[in-house]
Here is the input.
Amino acid sequence: MNDQESGAATENRFLHLMSTKVSYTPGWYLQTAKAESEWDHRGIDFFVYIAHKKGGDPVKVPVQIKSSENGARKFRRTHSSHRTGNILLFVVTPQKTDKDVRRMVYACLSRVRESGKRYDGYYAQELAKAEAHWKSRT
Here is the structure.
C-alpha cells in the first residue's frame, strides 16, 4: 500500500470510529464531517463538532489525520505554525486500537472544550488568504 492509499485508509478508519458512538463517547461530542477540498488543501481533513461549554453554537474543530509519525513531522514542516497551531493533528497508526484512538481524540477535544476556544477567527483568516490569492491571479 502506498502513502496515499495508507492515508485514505486511515482517514476512513477515523471517520468510521468517530461516527460510531460508544459507551464512553462524551455527551458534548456531536459529530465528525469530512472537510471539503478547499479546506483539505489547507491541511484540514475533518471538522469535529463539539458543544461549547458555555452553550451557543457548536465548536467546529479542524482536524488533520496522519498514518505515521513521519507524516506528522512532514505536515508540521510544510505548514505554518499559525496553521499547525490551529489544527488538531492525530497520528492514527494501525497498531493503535479503536479504543486508544477514540480516547486520544476525546481527551484532546475535552481540552479544547475546557479552554473555551472557538476557531472562527482562524477560518476567517484562511478564507481571506484564499480570496486574496485568487484575486491576485485574475
In short: The CA atoms of residues 71 and 87 lie 15 Å apart. Residues 98-115 form the longest helix (18 residues). The beta strands are 29-34, 46-50, 59-66, 88-91. The radius of gyration is 15 Å.
